[in-house]
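Why does this matter for the project? Reviewers at the last site visit asked to see concrete outputs rather than summary tables. In response, this paragraph embeds two records directly. Each consists of the residue sequence and, immediately after it, the corresponding structure tokens. Nothing has been edited or filtered.
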Amino acid sequence: MDAFYASVEQRDRPELRGQPVAVGGDPNGRGVVAAASYEARAFGVRSAIPMSRAVRLCPQLAVVRPDFQKYRAISQAIFALYREVTPLVEPLSLDEAYLDVTENAWHEPLAMTVAQRLKAAIRDTTGLTASAGVAPNKFLAKIASGWKKPDGLTVIAPGRVEAFLHQLPVDALWGVGPVTAARLRSIGVTRLVQIRTVAPDVLARTVGSHAEWLRNLSHGLDPREVQPHRTAKSSGMERTFSTDLTDRDAIAGHVARMADAGAAWLERREMFARTVTLKVRYDDFTTITRSHSRDEATRDQRDLRARALALLDRSEAGSRPVRLLGVSVHNLTDDERPCRPDGGGRPRLPFDERS
């Protein structure tokens, strides 16, 4: 969907149409931008930036508090349209999905025609626009979907894949964020196809275990199938506080409650977790994570809480003011037995730190 939350608000509030709009939190506090209209993006307003900065970039910006119940209802209507065409729908978020339309209810031989009809159905049903990417695999379709936003449709036929790849910068690669892109540029790689020419040992030193995967993507190869019932890989919650936390007991209380929420989520899903991760963002925006993993999975509330609090002891929270806290559970399984040595689960080091 195109600027989904902001587009919904512009649809429902005529006075916002054609105006720069940002959906998110209070600009006078620590609100962040959840979505920005295309009019706002022209001023540099983007999702995930502080709302206070967004207002400085665009003083005439209309700030709207999010209504996620409304967005979820619209999303459900859109996904219902998808599933009328194919059962192979893999949600990525409320406003994005992969569809495999090799076989479809309309018996359309061309995926481009399916995309055109779905875009029209979405507009007729919701009054909103969507952009579509049509390609032989998920990696290429994802890139194509953002190629001509808003209301775009980009088709990469098999015979055009190589020409399309030569147009792309290296950070178009799935999994390549700013840090990895900077590492690749440090070895002279600025275009996606240049990944192919890097010696295997050099690429491995630069991007680690992702080397083979990125090399395949540089050739336009992506064997992943559309998975209509994706298993959750993690769950967690985080909170940005209106004022910095400095009291250690208050910080520990928030961490404990977040760990309890993770245990309750696991209980509802009848799942277990092997890894607990703590996220701390200090007042200077330095962000650290601390993780603890065991071979044995659990959903025991006391255990998860104790591990989260132990991770907190490995941070500077309290001695340094805290802006954000988060606790999440990872390495999920429906079996609480230890990882199997035959590949049913990889033993991990007791502590893993990233900063």
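We now turn to the second protein, recorded in exactly the same manner.
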Amino acid sequence: MRKIWRSAIQDVVPYSAGKPLDVLAAEAGLGSLVRLSANEHPVGPSPRVIRAIVREARRVHLYPDGGATKLRVALAERLGVASEQIILGNGADELLALLAWAAFEPGDEVAIPHPSFEPYTTVVAIAGAVARLSPLAGYDTDLDDMRRQVTDRTKAVILCSPHNPAGTIVRRQPLLEFLRALGPEPPLVVLDEAYRDFCDDPDSPDGVALLATHPTLIVMRTFSKIAGLAGARVGYAVAGAEIIEQLNRVRAPYNVNRLGQAAALAALEDARYWQSTRHLVIEERAFLSRELSRRGHTFPPSQANFLLVKFGPDADAVRERLFRAGILVRDGAALGFPGHLRISVGTREANERLLAAL
């Protein structure tokens, strides 16, 4: 029989995004649901962003700027790098796929903390490479073990700080020591900083600031969280110009649509809204942490816009009870943490509704 499908994809489990909110609400017999399961912006994008999308909608019959030039220039100015050091993607997922297409070959190894963001292992598997999984030390990335996973066959190391789904950070000095320990010919090091905008710990590293001294470092960030553009799918990577050139070789010519580019540019320009979102999430994260602790719940200290809360054997029952109360939270078992629920930080109203339901 003719073989059609690649062997590498047979063990890949498709990502389950869940049913749309309106469908779930109808199935539950509720008028609406509060989704605290997807780490989305608690109130939505800036009014300035919405106006930009409306204006740009008149031009959706035209292809977008294939290089996202205006957006890259604005990002470069914000970050203090050259625009040639930035590549835009249809979310961080596409950026990971570009990396796999450009760099990973069958037999290559990629060191990844485990558990962590599922697409890390997915792109490795699809490329036919081998994921070397490094168990977390409790809720923290074990950099010593990550270093032990690196061999002569290692093509890349993937780190996330804050970690998804634990919310913990890789601290600055241990990260610098880890990067030095990789030696004079290090593999690629991907530092996923999707949630960095919500960090208020002064020991949290800034990946972009490390690029000048670590030429194989690739820093990934996104507009999905801080800017409320999860539905527009705009992520970006910052690295040396040589790395970005290689990634551009496998990038589709119009991979970020017109509305996404316009929305992201407007979000960058609205610095006040950006900062107000950061303040809201940090304030509500502290409130939710305090109130959950007062009720006897435990969780690792989070620097993201979510908490990974331990409920033990009652986790499934709690999740179901919250659903009946109109609140969606994420099953920790599906993320590698049985007995836990990942709960996004919402508005004060949403957080109080969650606490009341608990």
